[in-house]
Amino acid sequence: MTDPIQHLEQKLETVTREAERVDLLNDLTKAWATRSIDKAAMYAQKALELAEQINYPFGFAVALYRGGAVSFYQGYATKTIQQCQRACEMFKELGEAELMIESLQYTGNGYMELGDHEKALDYLIQALRAAEELGDKSIIAKCLNTLGNFYNEIRQRERGMKYHQQALQLYQEIGDHDGIAVAQTNLGIGYTQCEQYDQAVEAFTTALHYYEEMGQTLRAAQVMNNLGFLYKRQEQWDTALEYFNRSLDIKTQHHDQRGMIHSLMNKSEILNNLGQPETALENQLTALRLAEELSLKSMIANINYNIAHTYTMLGDHKTAYQSLLKYVELNRELTSEDMRKKLAEMETQNELERKERETELYRLKNVELARLNEELEKTNQSLIETQLKLVESQAQRIQAEKLATLGELAGVIAHEVNNALSGIMVPNEIILNTPELDRDKIWQCWESDEDGSLLEAYLDQREKEFRRVKSAADMIRTAAKRAAHVVDDLQNLIGGRSRQLGPVNLCQVFRSACRLQKQRLERITIIEEFECDPLEIVITSGEVGQIFMHLLVNASDALQEQKSAIITVRMYRQANGVQIECADNGRGIPPDHLEHLFDPFFSTKTRDGSGLGLTAVKRIIEEYGGSIDVQSEIGVGTTFSVWLPTDHKGKGRVFHL
Predict the structure, then answer these.
(1) Among 74, 316, 396, 479, whose CB has the most other CB atoms within 10 angstroms?
(2) Predicted TM-score of the model (pTM)
């Protein structure tokens, strides 16, 4: 039987029409997605470039959509969102409803990966509404299945199962055997997660029957793999091994190397549990060879870890140690790559959010300009020019402050990550340079060292080397925790978690804000006077983080000329809420400035200030039903007092599932 990918690639070499070539590149993207995600990405990029070059809108939109899907499986969720949103708009203009719906679904999956469940659900519901409007039961069922997966992902499994059952009912009504098999597979996974194993076996067996009847052997192999996993959870090792073997045979016939690796590793785990480590090792070494052929670093690392375990079972501790060293080295490389990847993803996400904010700012600006134009037409041209210059100046001030804040934050992140990486690389070199056990010397001592002094000296030396390696490992763990704290602080203040409404520990968020302002606050003493820790209210961590960040920035600016600079932050419960006081011993604020302090664009700074920081703080606080006040004395200092209710339920723009 001809390999479909080979057939498409042969056809690509002979095709002459450029539009047809784009279509073939898009088909190859889809075909390679299940085998090699890197090759799929390569074909998607080629299709995108060629479609743009020949001005082929449909092919360009398909390349965007499929490239976005590939980016999702590569872990680039923000890129998925950008490409699939653009593809969705193009498909809507081209009247391609089904592809538009699929683009909406992948956009939702992208937001799900970023932890923004509100936006994810919004796009998945949009897809379902569009499918219902189209009236195609098959597409409606696909959307229901995707919603079921969404609710399973957020651990609302009963709700997820209902969507899968609705999808199954629709597929049964239209006689779509492929859809029935998909829905039954999803139900089987749900039942497995709920430990309803009898129902899971029934669902998987039904799915397997349909796939075998339709000749879809690769999908049948995946269901067999699910059945193997199900029986493994129940410790029915022989039955699990039988399904993994059947799955492996099919994947081998189809040259599905990734699938073969997973089946081989599943088999090896079962064989180890059955007390057959020699056979398990053969499977693991075959999986390692396949993973190395595909350059799958993550898989190679995990396989080496499992090989080390199997060699330990066989009593070959030297080879186990060597495999474990390979795992550590690869894991170090992957950690570094993952950090760079996350930083790039954060930059892309920040750019996306910046563009959204700018779009909204320009929209508001245009609305305001339209109103001003009606009034300015009644006056002279010079007044019009003056007003326009004022608006432009304000926009530039806002943009300058945004860029300055982003630059400062990027500098903090780069500084902290570089310190963490240095703390990993140096001790890692110590570990790698530790000499192996000198067995010849031990035997030499055994044969000639009558009083045992030589052996004792060698053992003392090995003990010192062991303590040095342990110390290096502790240094690596400390550096890793430091990097994790930076990422956690960013997630709390600007990441996906920052937009989720719920109980927030004010003490924790304040400390995150301090760590992210570390360079600015370096010479300032921070005094915490907290009634208790944790001290919680219902809010989003991103918004309360903005409050702390702006208060700290204002206080640090006021302390620039102060030799003994101190910021004191008090937090205590008061009147069904929490009182926050941020006091500095800076230069103070002139009385005539105090009444305008919260006015938009009013700033006490001579430069680099847009005058929007405290306006934003006041807006956030008032949206939650809180209050803010300021007291200041020249030469003594300034105190901002904020009160926020413990639980405010009137914030209408927050989405609840």
Answers:
(1) 479
(2) 0.49
Dump pLDDT digits (tens) for 372-421: 666 666 665 555 566 556 545 555 554 555 444 545 555 555 555 655 56
- Sheet containing strand 525-530, edge to edge, reads 525-530, 566-573, 577-584, 637-645, 627-633
DSSP 437: P
- Mutual angle of helices 506-516 and 453-493, in 10-degree steps: 100
Read off the tokens for 278. Answer: 């020699």
Residue where a domain terminates, one of 470, 493, 516: 493
Q: Is residue 619 located within the same domain as residue 527?
A: yes
Q: What is the residue range of 573's domain?
A: 500-645
Give pLDDT tens digits for 619-637. 888 888 899 999 999 989 9
Give Cβ neighbours of residue 456 (< 8 Å, ≥ 6 apart): none
Average pLDDT value for residue range 586-594: 86
Tell me, yes or no, whether 411 and 509 share the same domain.
no
Nearest-angstrom CA–CA distance, 604 and 594: 10
Domain count, the chain: 3
Tell whether 73 is covered by a domain.
Answer: yes
Q: Are residues 428 and 539 in the same domain?
A: no
Is 508 part of a structural domain of the chain? yes
| Rounded (10°) angle between helices 257-273 and 277-293 | 160
- How far from the centroid of its chain's Cα atoms is residue 265's Cα? 26
In a shared domain, residues 63 and 113: yes
Whether 179 contacts 148, CB under 8 Å: no
Q: Which residues pair with 631 in a beta bridge?
A: 639
